[in-house]
Every structure is written in C-alpha cells, then in structure tokens.
Amino acid sequence: MRGIQRLMLLVLAGTCASPAASGAETESPRFWGDTWRGWHFYEDPVPEAEPPRPVPPKPTSTPAAARDSRRDHRPPELVELERLRKRVEDLRGIAVMRPTEANVRRYMELESKVVVQASTFADVAQRVAWTTPELDPSLQGRPVNAKALEVFEAQQLGDRSRSIAELGRDHVLLFFFRGDCPYCHAFAPILEAFQGRHRIRVEAVSLDGGALSGFVSARRDNGTAAALRVTQVPAVYLAQPFTGRIVPIGFGVLSESQLLERISAAATPAFEAMVPSAVRQLGMP
Predict the structure, then answer these.
(1) Phi first, then psi: what are they for 162, rounded to 5°?
(2) What is the structure's pLDDT at 283?
(3) Handedness of CA 231, 232, 233, 235 (dihedral sign)
(4) CB atoms within 10 A of CB 191
(5) Is the backbone of residue 251 left (phi > 0), alpha (psi -120 to 50) or beta?
(6) What are phi and psi of 258, to 5 degrees?
(7) Terminal Cα-to-Cα distance of the chain (whole angstroms)
(8) Count of beta carbons in the 10 Å neighbourhood of residue 233
(9) Residue 26's Cα: distance from chain center in Å?
(10) Triad 199, 249, 281: Cα angle to 5°
C-alpha cells in the first residue's frame, strides 16, 4: 500500500515539474515540450512588442506668453500708458453700469489725473513749437494773429489780382441773372467793380430778358444756361472761349475776396483733377 502511494506521489511530482524541466525549454518552448497543456492547433502567436512612440516636446511658451514676452521689450512708458487706458475704461464701465457715488468718484479722480497729464503734454508741446519755427502751426498757412492776418490777406489779394489779370487775356466771366431777381441786382455792382479792378471781362446773360444796372449790354440766353444746367441765379462761370472750357465759380451773392479765391482756384489744373465733373466743354455762343 505504501509503495502504491509513493508511486502516485512521484507521478504527480513529475507532471507538475514538466513545464520547467530545463532552462532551454523555458527560453524556447516547443509544442512537444508542453504536452501538459494539451494540443492547440490554432494557437494565436505571441504579439510583438510595439516600439516606443516619441513623446512630442512640450511647448516652452504659449502664444499669450509670447505676446507678453514681446510686450516686455516695449518702452516702459508704453506699458504704463496701456495699463492707464485699460484702467480708465474699466472704471468708466463700472461707473456706467453701476453709478454709485463711490464708483463715479473713483472714475472721475482717475480721469482728472489723465487730464492733468494731457495738459502738461500740451504745455510742453507749445513751448517746443515756440522755439522751433518749423513746428509752429501759427507760421504755417493762414496766420491767426490779427496784424499778421492783414498782411497775409493783402499779399494774397495782390497775388490773386495779378493772376486774374493774366487770366483776363483769354478768359471771361459768364454772369447769368434774371431781371426780377433782387439778389442779382445786389450782386451786379460788386461784379461790375470787380471787372474794372481786376481787368477781366464779364459777359452778362439774362435768362428772362430783363436788364441790370451796369450791364446794359447784357444778351439774352440762347440755350447756354440750359446746357450748363443753371437752376439758380445769380450764377458766375469762368469760361475760356478759345477752348470752350467752362467752370462754375459760385451761386448767390459773392464778395470780392470770394471771387478772387474761387477764380484763382478754378484756373489751376489741380481744380480739374479734384472735381473733374465740374469742368465742362461747350461751344461758346
């Protein structure tokens, strides 16, 4: 009985130890070396290990951080100005949406500081202009000083009068009027004096056959007013009979200085470039 038990123990021990019988079989298993598992005709192959995937490097900075980095290189005054603007906008928005005394007062105090800063800038800019002629706006263009303005206007008057006298060699002024128009009667003496002073001939054209003092030789309209679409009188046009070029000068009662300024401007090539639709080409009557 003891022999049978010992034989059974040996059989059981040999069966359990068969999978690891030798190191070679463990390293390279074969189907005949693991009969203890039974027969597996369609056993799945051992999956191959996948190579490790490269880990992308983490970005050192975000776009916002990059923008902040660029901002840090700006002059500190610009950084401070941007913060001040943001602060003013924020406080104003808070005061508008919740207009309590504290919110409004806080915004007004900051706004007062901004006004003081702007006033200081204006004072410095004014002093820089005083000491730098090319930066002084009062010396550029039309003066603001009353005495300087008189000199400027006298000089302008002389220059424009000479240029209009030159125009008078081959240009005329067309004056369209109506005999029943009170504004035409008021404008006629101004235009008559202008003709004599600046030596440019005025051709008066009556739309209704009426007459005006100072223009007794006015002729009746023969269709020129309709071609120019004259709908309001008095009307003045600068015309060059040789080329048929006609440019409107103005409508209504004009002063002598207005006539000088407008005629001088209308005679320049720049006028046609700026307002090409105003220039007409008509056969003169």
Answers:
(1) -65, -40
(2) 59
(3) negative
(4) 23
(5) beta
(6) -65, -40
(7) 154
(8) 22
(9) 82
(10) 95
Q: What whole-number distance in Å separates Cα of residue 67 and Cα of residue 81? A: 17
Amino acid identity, position 150? E
Q: Residues near 53 by Cβ (< 8 Å), separated by ≥ 6?
A: none
Radius of gyration of the chain (CA): 50
Q: Which residues of 93-106 are buried (b: 16+ CB within 10 A; e: fewer)?
A: ebbeeeeeeebbee
Question: What is the 8-class DSSP label of residue 229?
Answer: T
Neighbour count for residue 228 (Cβ, 10 Å): 17
What one-letter code names the amino acid at 83? Answer: R
| 6-10, 49-53, 60-64, 251-255: range with lowest mean pLDDT | 6-10
**What pLDDT does 143 receive?**
76
Structure tokens of 250?
A: 């103005």
Distance CA 219, CA 211 (A): 9
Query: How far apart are the C-alpha atoms of 208 and 258, rounded to whole Å?
Result: 27
Residue 245 backbone phi and psi in degrees, to 5: -80, 125
User: What are the boundaries of each domain within the chain?
Assistant: 73-138, 162-281
Separation of alpha carbons 88 and 227, rounded Å: 60
- 162-281 folds as Glutaredoxin (3.40.30)
Flag whether pLDDT at 257 surpasses 90: no
Helices (H) then strands (E): counts for the chain: 10, 6
pTM for the model stands at 0.53
